[in-house]
Amino acid sequence: MDRIFLRGMRFMACHGVLPHEREVPQSFEVDVELGLDLRAAGESDDLGNTVNYAKVYRTVSSIMNGGSKQLIEAVAEEIADDLLRDFDVLRWVRVTVHKPTAPIDGIFSDVGVTILRRRKDLVC
């Protein structure tokens, strides 16, 4: 399976369990990997046979900057659902949401979740 990826999309957003996390923007980073067949795009050189990266970014941005969620798991799930809904050519998506400034009492470089979702009507 071929793949397209967008890594290191950065946002200041208000997601978190603690009340102040939903009021004061924090740093988030999102990576997406998209599974699809890129042969037609490669052979035709036609954007209509692939996924427009700018549209993927706009989808992710609208979710990150939209309504606050308590869990980054819920943020990742919404991103995956919207990408699969908006882009018919996708067979699966992998979404990672990083929250490097999570309110954890300790030393760490990153906290995040990764989910993999497949198009329900396809066998991959």
CATH topology: GTP Cyclohydrolase I, domain 2
CATH class: Alpha Beta
Helical residues, percent = 25-40%
Strand content: 25-35%
Q: Let me know the CATH homologous superfamily.
A: GTP cyclohydrolase I, C-terminal domain/NADPH-dependent 7-cyano-7-deazaguanine reductase, N-terminal domain
Main sheet makeup: 4 strands, antiparallel
Element order, helices and strands? EEHHHEE
Structural class: alpha+beta
The end-to-end distance, rounded to whole angstroms, is: 9 Å
What is the chains' assembly state? single chain
Counting structural domains, the number is 1
- Given as residue ranges, the uncertain stretches (5+ residues, pLDDT < 50) are none
Mean pLDDT, as a whole number? Answer: 94
Folded structure, characterized:
The chain has one domain (2-118): GTP cyclohydrolase I, C-terminal domain/NADPH-dependent 7-cyano-7-deazaguanine reductase, N-terminal domain (GTP Cyclohydrolase I, domain 2, 2-Layer Sandwich). It has three helices and four strands. The chain has helices at residues 39-44, 53-64, 72-86; strands at 2-13, 26-36, 92-98, 112-118. Strands 1-2-3-4 form a four-stranded antiparallel beta sheet, covered by helices on one side. It is elongated and about 50 Å long. The model has no long low-confidence stretch (mean pLDDT 94).
